[in-house]
Design brief:
The complex is a heterotrimer of chains A (257), B (584) and C (223). In chain B, 61% of the residues lie in helices and 1% in strands. Chain B is built from 16 helices and 4 strands. In chain B, a hairpin with a 2-residue loop joins strand 1 and strand 2. Chain C has 2 domains: 79 residues, Helix Hairpins, CATH 1.10.287; 124 residues, Sandwich (Immunoglobulin-like), CATH 2.60.40. The chains are: A mainly beta (257), B mainly alpha (584), C alpha+beta (223). The interface between B and C is large, with 99 and 89 residues.
Chain lengths: 257, 584, 223
């Protein structure tokens, strides 16, 4: 009956209106290579730089057997290795999330940048493996593989989610509402795929690169506690005082285990 | 028994049509609401078929759905499993069951027994409103955060109990609440049907003069009142596991995942007999009418209904052959399951016996009833493959099972409903549905229906699993993909053809030919009333019954080929009025 | 496009396929009787002016016949079927020399564990491989099925093997492959959004190939 048809159309209308709450825009933003967002505060601030290393023997990076996913395996000339410990020259440690855990004056708010952090699923790996993002900043999750990936966010302070992207080219955006170190991201179809997101209310964080170095910029004067987080080796802290626009060094050394 | 009309003040529109306690109006309310949910179930099925036929391709119209379901027009895997879950849920609980029971138990029982209304008219009204409420709660599942439940209509734990593993949160809880409310509606309805059949038969309406439709609805009501509470209990346990930290189904804390399956199927198997017995009963009435002959083997038919209902309690484990339960249970359930084929076979042969040497009037209800017999036979026979446990190993949880379900539920129950809706439409609305549209609808449905569901047996044998978002992921399934496409296109055609029925049903409400009092020359008590039947039925009078319901072509009928139950012939003695206290 | 069950790949396929065929014949006969009956009656007994239906309430003899024949057939079918059911599923039917393997089902992969050089499952030298079941041909294999999170179902169509994996339970599924080659494992119980992607592969090797593969894996396997 007409009433039935109207209800169906009306219902679908409601679906559209109510369902689009969280996210929807397909962002055409360029890939953000540097996870650290452009700072909204004054450009004249202090800098903390440093290098992260480890002592001991790095665990052997076991090769990942992707024979069950031909489309991903084909993207590699040599088999990719496990990413839980990425060691560089002279025991440099990559993928360490370094951030200001204390010292930012209470009540100071920071605007999340408009450009999203791009998390790409490519070759059945998350790129980047570890990244920082601000509260309210968009994370654009892309699938560059012609296979199903699901992105499961395991979080305590933020709302967990679990969404799938069955086709290449699919994009979706998510934001985190609460600071959390770290939100774990995983793909359940490809058990080796893991990523870690450090969600912070301020822009004072960085991820160590292949040479183990990191830089946190534009810090106002103050005494800060810096924490370095590694997925396998744990956390370390350091205290740094910034007076003006100088650059201070804070190095971290983890013990391999 | 009080009469109705005598003490009624004139009723407002709301009292008469919305908050009515008249069993006929309640039956019609169930009819409109259930047809709506049938449409919802069909729309969900169309999306499922799109994805199976054209995996990963953008669906036409997909853009209107939110990104949590469809991205760039492509159905997401998590939405696909919501579709299969909710298609099953809506079709079983909110379409077929209320169409058979909510509509026809309500509408037919008092009319066919000579009663003025149900034993408890106000509880009857509550039964409808609770069912509607349950349906709305279930529908809400699509609109809440994280979307609809997605563990299959069978809701197996632990997947259904763990939002972190399924992805569905609030809707999973709403499913449980909806089921509890629906169960209450069913139980209240069953109490009414059982009481009315036992206590409110007109004088002369002995047990073995009741039409098979009433027998079937009566036995179904007993099944309902015993089975639904089990499901309600299971749903409450599931709700508690999801919300308040119990661990009924959580092995880690000493619970048992298999417990859900036992509880669900202990309800679930009687449920499928709830979904077929009323259909069988109404088909019996219609085939006897169309053949102008008594039903062949009336007593056997009654005992077959009782036998199916009784055996139906001890076969539930056949849904669990692969579940990991003790294989010895597999053996016992196999035996009981193979045996339940026997009373169903008896019924099929008796329907054939009814048609044999009849004078067949192939009116639209008769066509659909015959369609029921031939399709239900296929569905029942395919069940034998699953009953034989070693053969169940390759076909369990494949499209072979899906074929079986749809042959009995659509080929069976839904064809019976097309027959019943057409047959009793004059009694409900005072008009006849258009015959030509009805015949076009029947033939086109019959053809497209078989094109849709028969090939599922084959791809199921080939190994295509159920609830699979994209079969082409598997190399061994890729050669079968053309069959999936064929099924999808047939399904689209099948859905489109239902437009003939929808149009016929709605158009005839206002523009159909006005119905004569007994358009099918039938024997039932209901046809001794005007069309549509008035409030209170025969009140203040009570009809008197002189014979059984199937005296077509009886010699005593003379030139007519039918002999109504209420027609008194000179040779008929007056029956002794019922002597039950409070009885009339 | 295959119009029948998949190619037989295990010792179970023969009995199951034969039983399937027997049931097909029995149900086929019943189907033909009913459908031909329907069509014949619809044509032959169509209403015609002046015709009257034959007034009868039934026939006890007919009832007895069409009750007894289906009942006897079903009982016989049950007895035959049960013999094979016990063989395939009963724990005591697992051949004592069956090679033990572990399959741990989880969202959304099959974690297969092998006994390693000491030949015993459950010892420190076990190794696991994702989504790949390697077995030798013509030897019984007993899979210890477990599940991590929800119910999954281990299904290899060519072997005619299917068994639910239930969290908290350890269920043995045994089979013996009869042909070398590569087959697929599918998940046959809805387990979440990745249910359709729980695809594994079975590699049936000659005994020599199998031993070679085992040695390779034990030496330096992959992630």
């Amino acid at each position: 009956m007409k009433g039935r048809i109207f209800s169906v159309v009306g219902g679908m209308f409601l679906l559209t209106v109510c369902g689009k709450g969280e996210q929807s825009q397909v962002q055409a933003a360029p890939p953000a290579i540097d996870p650290a967002p452009a700072s909204a505060s004054s450009s004249a601030g202090g800098t903390i730089t440093g290098k992260v290393r480890f002592t001991g023997t790095a665990p052997r990076g076991r090769p990942i057997d992707m024979s069950e996913e031909a489309a991903c395996k084909a993207k590699y000339t040599t088999p990719p290795t496990d990413e839980s410990v990425v060691a560089g020259a002279a025991n440099a440690l990559s993928n360490v999330f370094v951030y200001v855990s204390a010292g930012v004056p209470a009540g100071q708010t920071f605007t999340a940048p408009a450009t999203p952090v791009v998390l790409d699923q490519d070759g059945c790996r998350y790129r980047p493996h570890v990244f920082g993002v601000m509260v309210g900043q968009a994370v654009e999750i892309r699938n560059s593989d012609p296979v199903l990936h699901n992105i499961k966010a395991v979080a305590k302070r933020n709302r967990p989610f679990n969404v799938s992207q069955p086709n290449a080219g699919m994009k979706m955006t998510r934001t985190f509402a609460q600071p959390e170190v770290m939100v774990n991201l995983e793909c359940n179809v490809h058990g080796w795929m893991k990523a870690y997101a450090g969600v912070r209310p301020d822009p004072f964080f960085a991820v160590s690169g292949p040479d183990g170095s990191f830089t946190i910029k534009d810090l106002p004067p103050g005494t800060y506690t810096i924490e370095a987080w590694h997925e396998k080796f744990g956390t370390q802290t350091a205290t740094v005082t910034i007076a003006g626009t100088e650059s201070k060094t804070a190095n971290f050394t983890f013990a391999a285990r | 028994m009080k009469t109705h009309d005598a003490h009624h003040a004139p009723m407002s529109f709301w009292q008469k049509y919305i908050f009515s306690t008249d069993h006929k109006i309640i039956g019609i309310q169930f009819l409109f609401v259930s047809l709506f949910f049938l449409l919802v179930g069909g729309l969900l099925a169309m999306q499922i078929r799109w994805q199976l036929g054209f995996p990963g391709k953008p669906m036409p119209g997909g853009g209107i759905l939110p990104e949590s379901m469809v991205v760039d027009g492509v159905i997401l895997p998590e939405y696909y499993i919501q579709l299969v879950t909710m298609h099953g849920t809506f079709m079983v609980f909110f379409a077929i069951m209320p169409l058979l029971v909510g509509v026809y138990a309500n509408f037919l029982i008092p009319l066919k027994l000579g009663a003025h209304d149900m034993a408890f008219p106000r509880i009857n009204m509550w039964s409808f409103w609770l069912a509607l409420l349950a349906g709305l709660i279930m529908l809400a599942g699509f609109f809440v955060p994280d979307g609809a439940p997605r563990a299959g209509w069978t809701m197996y734990a632990p997947l259904s109990a763990r939002p972190d593993l399924s992805g569905a949160t609030l809707s999973q809880q709403l499913w449980c609440v909806s089921i509890v409310v629906l169960g209450l509606s069913s139980v209240l309805g069953s109490l009414n049907y059982i009481t009315t059949v036992i206590n409110h038969r007109a004088p002369g309406m002995t047990w073995f003069r009741m039409p098979l439709s009433v027998w079937a609805l009566f036995i179904t009501a007993i099944l309902g009142v015993l089975a639904l509470p089990v499901l309600q209990g299971a749903a409450i346990m599931l709700l508690f596991d999801q919300t308040i930290g119990t661990h009924f189904f959580d092995f880690g804390a000493g619970g048992q995942p298999l417990l859900w399956q036992h509880l669900f199927w202990f309800f679930g198997h009687p449920e499928v007999y709830i979904l077929i017995l009323p259909a069988m009963g109404m088909v019996s009435d219609i085939i006897a009418n169309g053949s102008r002959k008594p039903i062949f083997g009336y007593h056997s038919m009654v005992f077959a209904i009782i036998g199916i209902a009784f055996l139906g309690w001890i076969v539930w484990g056949h849904h669990m052959f692969m579940s990991g339960m003790n294989p010895t249970l597999g053996s016992t359930f196999m035996v009981s399951t193979l045996l339940i084929a026997v009373p169903s076979a008896i019924k099929v042969f008796n329907w054939l016996g009814t048609m044999w040497r009849g004078n067949l009037h192939l009116h639209v209800p008769m066509l659909n009833a015959i369609g029921f017999v031939s399709m239900f036979t296929i569905g029942g026979l395919s069940g034998i493959f699953m009953a034989a446990t070693p053969v169940d190993i390759p076909i369990h949880d494949t499209q072979f099972i899906v074929a079986h379900i749809h042959y009995v539920l659509f080929g069976g129950s839904l064809f019976a409903l097309f027959a019943a809706i057409t047959f009793w439409y004059p009694k409900m609305f005072g008009r006849v549905m258009d015959e030509r549209l009805g015949k076009i609808h029947f033939w086109l449905t019959f053809i497209t229906y078989n094109m849709t569901f028969f090939p599922m047996h084959i791809i199921g044998m080939g190994g295509q699993m159920r609830r699979i978002y994209d079969p082409t992921v598997y190399t061994f399934l890729q050669p079968q993909q053309p069959v999936n496409v064929f099924i999808t296109i047939s399904a689209f055609a099948l859905f489109a053809v239902q437009f003939f029925f929808m149009f016929n049903f709605l158009w005839s409400l206002k523009r159909g030919q006005k119905a004569p009092q007994n358009p099918w020359n039938d024997n039932g008590l209901e046809w001794s009333l005007p069309n549509p039947a008035p409030h209170g039925n025969w009140a203040p009078a009570t009809p008197i019954v002189y014979r059984g319901p199937y005296e077509f072509s009886a010699p005593e009928a003379g030139d007519a080929d039918y002999l109504p139950q209420t027609k008194k012939l000179p040779s008929d003695p007056d029956p002794v009025p019922a002597t039950l206290p409070g009885g009339h | 496009m295959r119009w029948w069950l998949p190619d037989a790949g295990s010792t179970f396929a023969g009995p199951i396929d034969t039983l399937f065929l027997v049931i097909l014949i029995i149900t086929g006969i019943a189907l033909v009787i009913v459908e031909v009956g329907v069509v014949t009656f619809v044509i032959r007994y169509r209403a015609r002016p002046g015709r009257k239906a034959f007034y009868t309430h039934g026939s006890t003899r007919a009832e007895v016949i069409w009750t007894a024949i289906p009942a006897v057939t079903m009982v016989a079918l049950g007895l035959v079927s049960n013999h094979y059911w016990v063989l395939m599923k009963d724990k005591n039917s697992v051949p004592p020399n069956a090679i033990q393997m572990g399959v741990h089902a989880k969202q959304f992969e099959w974690e297969v564990s092998y006994a390693g050089p000491d030949g015993t499952l459950g010892t420190p030298d076990d190794f696991t491989v994702r989504n790949q079941l390697h077995i030798p041909v013509d030897q019984p294999v007993a899979v210890q099925l477990t599940a991590e999170d929800v119910i999954h179902s281990f299904f290899v169509p060519e072997f005619r093997v299917k068994q639910d994996a239930v969290p908290g339970m350890n269920i043995t599924a045994w089979f013996q492959a009869t042909k070398t080659g590569e087959y697929e494992i599918g998940c046959a119980e809805l387990c979440g959004m990745g249910h359709y992607r729980m695809r594994g592969r079975v590699f049936v090797h000659t005994p020599e190939e199998f031993n070679t593969w085992l040695a390779q894996q034990a030496a330096g396997g992959s992630e």
